[in-house]
Design brief:
The protein is mainly alpha-helical. The chain is built from six helices and two strands; from the N terminus they run ββαααααα. The protein has a two-stranded antiparallel sheet.
């Protein structure tokens, strides 16, 4: 088997067997619900990157980037296995907090002006930026369902990740109405 010549290559080939390495070194199937949920969150972050690339407003780009950084923290929380939860909680790894949720609530208040109140469904596609935000919103809803499914199957996970994603989808809907 060919090995990558780069010392720290991303192409380790250790995932060729259908397993992936989690935080703290445990190997689990790539079909594990935690991996599925994190895949949706990763896809959401990528879609936000696309929306950010199309966005001409510097403040909005900064908002989208802050959300992407929060999603990295969320992925850590969603991805940690029950066996490693104590170690994770004792670490200094950034986690989603109530303050992050409060920032999203504040953003909803800021964005939800009379002209942005729900008056009926809109079709995506008036601009590349707006269309990318609508796709991000749909991916966010899927990520939320994946996170809720984790809890429903008995995996240890607080309610903050699902609440964060639920609120984020509202923010993305409002941002897409610009």
């Amino acid at each position: 088997m060919r090995q990558s010549k780069a010392k720290n290559s991303i192409a380790t080939r250790t995932g060729d067997d259908g397993l992936t390495t989690q935080l703290y070194g445990r190997r689990i199937p790539k079909t594990h619900p935690r991996i599925v949920a994190n895949g949706s969150i990763d896809e959401l972050s990528s879609q936000l990157g696309l929306a950010k690339a199309f966005c001409e407003d510097a403040a909005r780009r900064e908002t989208l980037e802050r959300i992407q950084l929060e999603l990295i923290a969320l992925m850590g929380e969603v991805g940690v296995l029950d066996e490693d939860r104590e170690k994770y909680l004792a670490s200094k790894i950034r986690r989603i907090e109530e303050a992050d949720l409060a920032r999203l609530d504040d953003l909803v208040d800021e964005l939800e002006t009379e002209e942005r109140r729900f008056t009926g469904w809109v079709l995506a596609g008036t601009s590349p930026h707006q269309a990318a935000l609508h796709v991000a919103r749909a991916v966010c809803r899927r990520a939320e369902r994946d996170v809720i499914a984790l809890r429903e199957r008995g995996e240890t996970l607080g309610d903050l990740p699902a609440r964060y994603l639920n609120r984020l989808s509202d923010v993305l809907w409002l941002l897409a109405r610009d």
